[in-house]
Amino acid sequence: MQDTMARRVALLGGTFDPVHAGHVALGAHFMALLQADELWVMPALPWQKAALAASPQQRAEMVELAFAGQPYPVVVDKRELQRGQPTYTVDTLRELRAELGPQTSIAFLMGADQLQRLDTWHDWQDLFGLAHLCAAARPGFELGALPPAVAQEFARRAATPEQIRNTPSGLTCLAPDLALDVSATGIRAALQRGNKPGSLSLLIPPVVLDYIEQHNLYKK
Ligand code: ATP
C-alpha cells in the first residue's frame, strides 16, 4: 500500500535538565518505528516539576547539542520557553496542529513514567484529537501498570506504525523494548555527589557533558 501522508512529525517534549541518552534513544526509536520525516524537540517550562537547575536557555542549548548530527532532520522548538510561563501540552499541540495543518501525522512521544500519569495532564483526553500518543518502556516504570482510564484509551486506539504514519491523530502505540536506565534526576544527583562528568559518558552525549562542565552546572 502506498503511503499518502505528506508530512510526519514526531514530537518529544520534556524538561531536559539535562538532556541525556534516554531522550536521544527515545527519539531515535520512534523515528525508526514510525519512519517520521522530522523530530521536533520541545523543551518545556513544566507545571509538574520542582524548580529546575539549568536555565531555560541552557536546557535549550544542551538539547541542540545532543540532537545535532542525527540522521534525520531535528527541529528544536523553543516556543514553550519563550512564553515565559508554563504551558499545557494540549495548548501547544493545538497551536502546532494549526501550523502544520489537518493532514500532518503528529506523534507525541513519551516514556512510561509520563504515560503512568497521563490522566493528571490538563485536558488529557483532548490530546488524542490533536496527535497520536506513543509511549516507550522505561526501567522502573511498567507500561502495563496504567490508570484504568489511560489503559482503556490506549487499548482502544492501539495501532500499527503504518496506521500512525497515515493518519493525522487519535492513535496510540507502545514500544516495550526500549530499556535505557537513565534519568535527569539520577544524573543531577551523581554530579552533585561530585562524580566526574566523564564517568557519565554512557548516559549523556559527550558534547552535553562538555557543556555541563563549561557552565558549572549541577554542582552543590
Ligand atoms: P527527571 O528525572 O528530571 O524527571 P527525565 O529523565 O524524566 O527527568 P524529562 O525531560 O522529564 O527527563 O523527559 C522527557 C521525556 O522523555 C518524558 O516523556 C520521559 O518519560 C522521557 N524519557 C526520559 N528518560 C527516558 C528513558 N530513559 N527511557 C524512556 N523515556 C524517557
Characterize the structure shown:
This protein has 220 residues and is of the alpha/beta class. The chain has one domain (8-182): 3-Layer(aba) Sandwich (Rossmann fold). It has 9 helices and 6 strands, in the order E-H-E-H-E-H-H-E-H-E-H-H-E-H-H. It has helices at residues 21-34, 56-67, 79-82, 89-100, 112-116, 148-156, 161-165, 184-192, 206-214; strands at 8-14, 38-43, 74-76, 105-111, 132-136, 172-175. It has a 6-stranded parallel sheet, sandwiched between helices. Strand 2 (38-43), helix 2 (56-67) and strand 3 form a beta-alpha-beta unit. Helix 2 (56-67) packs antiparallel against helix 9 (206-214). The protein is globular and about 45 Å long. 39% of the residues are buried. It binds adenosine-5'-triphosphate (ATP).
In short:
The protein has 220 residues and is of the alpha/beta class. The protein has helices at residues 21-34, 56-67, 79-82, 89-100, 112-116, 148-156, 161-165, 184-192, 206-214, and strands at 8-14, 38-43, 74-76, 105-111, 132-136, 172-175. It has one domain (8-182): HUPs (Rossmann fold).
Blueprint of the fold:
Blueprint (H helix, E strand, L loop, with lengths): L7 E7 L6 H14 L3 E6 L12 H12 L6 E3 L2 H4 L6 H12 L4 E7 H5 L15 E5 L11 H9 L4 H5 L6 E4 L8 H9 L13 H9 L6
Parallel strand pairs: 1-2, 1-4, 2-3, 4-5, 5-6
The protein binds adenosine-5'-triphosphate (ATP).
